[in-house]
Design goal:
This protein has 15 helices and five strands. By secondary structure, it is α+β, with helices and mostly antiparallel strands. The protein has two domains: about 15-160, Beta-Lactamase (2-Layer Sandwich), CATH 3.30.450.20; about 190-435.
């Protein structure tokens, strides 16, 4: 090989293949990942002829820069029957490369992968993370499963609960960046769901803050009782009040504890976030699936595809139907989750109002005791400060729960929203759970 050949080969390897923002391409495989069909855009970009693609394993376009861990994550997920999304760098027949964000969905007898051009900011981070993952695989001899675990840990470090949270966020960002680049308006549903996640996180933060505040004042009722016992017999009512306060504040911590630990398992708010991630992914993916399906239908009509393409149009059409159905179901479950969250916040407020009235009783009783109650003053002052703090936090939780409700309502397709609204009897899901919204 002469120097000139090597140089042109190097140039090719570092050259990416251009494709337009509005071009979506897809391929269909069997259950093992052997290519069965695809659209003309796929053939053109990959540079392979149909007879080289059809019947070949999809790794025919595998690029050596891709970490094995990513394929492990993808296959593990799609083999359980759920869609998966990932950034993938592919190699063309002539040695160039192209990056895509791929959405791989299980279909009867195999899978369909729909790809779009990545342009969101997060993509830059991904390129760096893939390079690090590849080095770790090479240097530390990681297996695909070990590398997958390492990738998930890295994503956790970047603030994503798991791979699904990352891929949902990345897909939503890609879809929004694509809408912007194509001069389309913002998709309201994607935007609302993206904004809902931080709201849920903020509620969780405030619930934890409340829980810790209650833990910190655990000692107050017993201090009150000790002081009251010194005032006997006049301190009797204070003893009773402190006993009530203790019982009721335990009820509040139980309520908060149950909410935060989901019966000793993971946090309920974590599972709500998980369902929002799922909804975000499904909403963004649905729009892409619909677009690729419409483009395929147009290509079939205009003669831009080869014979036998009708089957692909049918496959994509039923995939769109499946996506719409699942998206509506997932959104309905997010709707119920947020309703439950809001109801729980209201219950909490009621409990705290009850607790506050005990505090007021305590103040009144101390006033009645007059100068004898001086030793109670520091304890009651502490209780006053505590109530100001928890009232503020609770107020924030109530506002955030309202924001959550507004966002989820705006993210719902109108038809589902109508079915779930109390006026219509809440036909989907648990009527009581949605009734309070
Ligand atoms: C529908 C579908 C599409 C796929 N698309 C790609 C792709 O574009 N590029 C790629 O390298 N692998 C793709 N794969 C994964 C490959 O099957 C394979 O797992 C991967 O190339 C790694 O191959 P290896 O584990 O043999 O190295 C796809 C799999 C499926 C099911």
């Amino acid at each position: 090989m002469n120097i000139q050949t090597t140089a042109s080969e190097f140039a090719r390897k570092t050259e990416d293949v251009a494709f337009a923002m509005d071009e979506l391409f897809f391929s269909r495989t069997d259950e093992r990942g052997v290519i069965a069909a695809g659209n003309a855009v796929f053939r053109r970009i990959s540079g392979f002829d149909w007879d080289e693609l059809v019947g070949a394993p999809h790794k025919v376009v595998r690029h050596s820069d891709m970490p094995k861990g990513i394929f492990h994550i993808l296959w593990t997920r799609i083999q359980t029957g759920v869609p998966a999304g990932a950034y993938v760098k592919n190699r063309t027949k002539d040695g160039r490369y192209y990056w895509v964000y791929a959405i791989i969905s299980p279909i009867p007898g195999g899978y369909v992968s729909v790809r779009l051009k990545p342009t969101a900011q997060v993509f830059e981070t991904v390129v760096a993370e893939y390079a690090a993952a590849l080095s770790a695989e090479r240097d530390e001899g990681l297996t695909p499963a070990q590398s997958a675990q390492r990738i998930c840990e890295r994503l956790h470090g970047l603030g994503f609960a798991n791979y699904e949270a990352f891929s949902a966020s990345a897909l939503a960002q890609e879809a929004m960046a694509r809408d912007g680049a194509l001069g389309r308006g913002e998709d309201g549903r994607t935007r609302c769901l993206s904004r809902l996640l931080p709201v849920i996180k903020a509620i969780e933060g405030n619930q934890i803050k409340l829980f810790q505040a209650f833990e910190a004042i655990r000692g107050i009722p017993s201090n009150m009782r000790i002081v009251a016992s010194r005032l006997e017999p006049a301190g009797g009512p204070i003893s009773a009040i402190s006993q009530n306060y203790r019982l009721m504040s335990n009820e509040v911590t139980d309520h908060l504890g149950a909410f935060l630990s989901d019966g000793g398992k993971r946090s309920l708010l974590d599972s709500i976030s998980g369902r929002i991630d799922q909804a975000l992914f499904m909403v963004a993916a649905s729009r892409i699936q619909r677009e690729v399906s419409e483009a395929a239908r147009e290509a079939l009509v205009s003669g831009g595809e080869r014979g036998g393409f009708e089957q692909e149009v049918d496959v994509l059409t039923s995939l769109v139907d499946g996506y719409s159905k699942t998206t509506a179901e997932v959104l309905a479950s997010v709707f119920r989750d947020v309703a439950q969250l809001r109801r729980s916040a209201k219950d909490l407020k009621q409990l705290v109002t009850g607790l506050d009235s005990i505090r007021v009783l305590c103040r009144v009783e101390a006033g009645r005791l007059g100068a004898n109650s001086a030793s109670l003053t520091p304890v009651i002052n502490q209780l006053d400060r505590f109530h100001v703090e928890i009232d503020n936090t609770l107020e924030k939780i109530m506002e955030q729960a309202e924001d959550g409700k507004d966002l989820v309502e705006r993210a719902m397709p109108r038809a589902v929203n109508r079915t779930l609204s109390p006026k219509h009897g809440g036909a989907i899901g648990h009527p009581r759970a949605v009734g309070i919204l």
